[in-house]
Write the structure tokens for this entry.
Amino acid sequence: MHKWYAWLAMAVTMMDIARDLKVSVVTVSKALRNQGKISAATRQRVLRRAKQLNYQMNWVARSLVTRRTYTVGLLLPEFTHSFFAEVARAVAQTMRPHGYHVIISYFEEDPELEASEADSFLARQVDGLIIATAQPARCLGLFQRIQKRDVPYILIDRPMVGLRASFVGVDNRAIGRLATEHLIARGCCRIGHLRGPGIGIAAERHEGYRKALAKGGQRMHARYVIGGGHGDEAGYENMRRLLRVRPMVDGVFCFSDPVAIGAMKAIQDGGLNVPNDISVVGAGNIHYSDVLAVPLTTVDQNTYQIGARAAELLLERIGIKRPVPPRTILIPPKLVERESTRRMP
Amino acid sequence: MHKWYAWLAMAVTMMDIARDLKVSVVTVSKALRNQGKISAATRQRVLRRAKQLNYQMNWVARSLVTRRTYTVGLLLPEFTHSFFAEVARAVAQTMRPHGYHVIISYFEEDPELEASEADSFLARQVDGLIIATAQPARCLGLFQRIQKRDVPYILIDRPMVGLRASFVGVDNRAIGRLATEHLIARGCCRIGHLRGPGIGIAAERHEGYRKALAKGGQRMHARYVIGGGHGDEAGYENMRRLLRVRPMVDGVFCFSDPVAIGAMKAIQDGGLNVPNDISVVGAGNIHYSDVLAVPLTTVDQNTYQIGARAAELLLERIGIKRPVPPRTILIPPKLVERESTRRMP
DNA sequence: TCCGTTAGGGTAAACGTTAATATATGGGTA
DNA sequence: TACCCATATATTAACGTTTACCCTAACGGA
């Protein structure tokens, strides 16, 4: 029986089709899913009627009984950083062919907000989570809650020590190594480093820088390493400080491209030339790295691959019911030579 | 009775709390929602137990009965364009305080994919939709389907003629006008235009350009207007073509910042100087517009406002049940003067 | 005493789907 | 005819909430 408010835009349900065709709802369900014992004739009738009525599955109802929402949550520190935008693109693109939707939330680097958003995802019964976390070291509460709910999750970009979880990220040591080796190969012998914020990945890039210097037979001078901040303003300020250190550097490895862009501006404002006086290497290969005043030599971190591999790994975990040992995937970075590092001397 | 697989990670439900406290599920539901007739004592007992058991609402079940998912869909042509990333940020940020989540999907400028994703959103019972559509002119099928389902939706950035729907976007004519008037004010008298792809907003910016020229007493030369493409490569190529037109332009209004960046590169590669030989104005004020070789004068389109206003409008529509007349909101753009346009002659 | 009101609960039904099980129907076989 | 099997469809019970309504005890006023 139609409700009195039937004239209101009510979505058509399986019940409507069933009543129409004088069959049961289950028959309709089976026909639409093409599953279970059902005659070809009935199936065709149902399918035709469904198309006529413009029937659309109510996923909320289906999810309630199947306990599958075909939705995964993606939790990011921010949207506008092109790194995360690219990750999001890769995740969505990898998930889509498998019928998954991606809910994205970003938490502005706020651990509290991150936790609350994650809980909210759990309440929405996501099938899995991909997280670039901002939880401080040794704060595993959030992840323990997720594990208790048995929702598979993958960490990306920022690993979490002491946590048995799968991780996908760049090989940050390799970034530091590649950049520094390149500067050495180009003949730099006083190589500085703008090491960015005090987070794990910065430490790893710094370690790569240190190892590469040692392997190249160069000493590391603490005064050549300046840290703090990760925007272009921070890069500008820190480079100005670095320029005052004597003997002056002839090469800088910057934590990120924005930092490098700020640094190049500082060098030019200081009346010096990139790359003739100082070579600059960034990291990230963000868009427009190649349309700058001096196109920036940088280390590409294969951003798309990070998102894609994380998504694949998550899909795999969702498929399996039993817990499987966590995996760590390090995406190898790649040097992109442009014009901010000088030619062979 | 617990199921045999109770040891498996089963989320705790209201039923669990109710059995624990020897009350009915409804009482628990009322307590948690703080609604309906219930004593303060019972409420406290329920709340405490819920916290102890780490209860989390099953939104799928709730949505099924309330017909509200507190989820809105955001349908974008692409992710990585910083304009859309910023819109997404604004939408999410505006929605969050109201308890809404945002599902983002992008369709790579493919109308078919757009339609299929929109249908998928409807199946997931989103409470509303925000769409930057790529449907060709006069293809209203998708929107009619949405309207039949009575799901409120807002168009952003790209209007759709012949559709009674709310729209939020920049005032594109004002962009063209602002940019061109600025070039005129700076003494340019042969102003070209790289007009970008053949879509509506490009036509509007072009119209603003045309009107401003007329108002400034300058003739428009068709040969000074070159179109096609919207990336930096397209900007580079089109600017090369424009440079061959005699008498040579002394100012260019570019459809977008990427196009302008490409154009500046082409000008410099041609041995000319920005802004002394040719002034360049972009549109969009994307990140890094100010760290380029020559910081780019551009027209800021108030991206955040577009997302925020669209979200506010959608929230308003979701609140109302009866249909309300559609509204069009044009966000006024703002000129950002940097160094790619020459000083007063 | 009687009646009406109210506070604090409870019960049953719904939401739209799927999973598990049951009921016809028809054909072959003994 | 009785029996068994296969096939196609129907029935029932979940899934975890909310909503609408019912029940009971206590209280207050006439």
About this structure: Residues 111 and 134 of chain A are 6 Å apart (CA to CA). The first helix of chain A runs from residue 14 to 21.
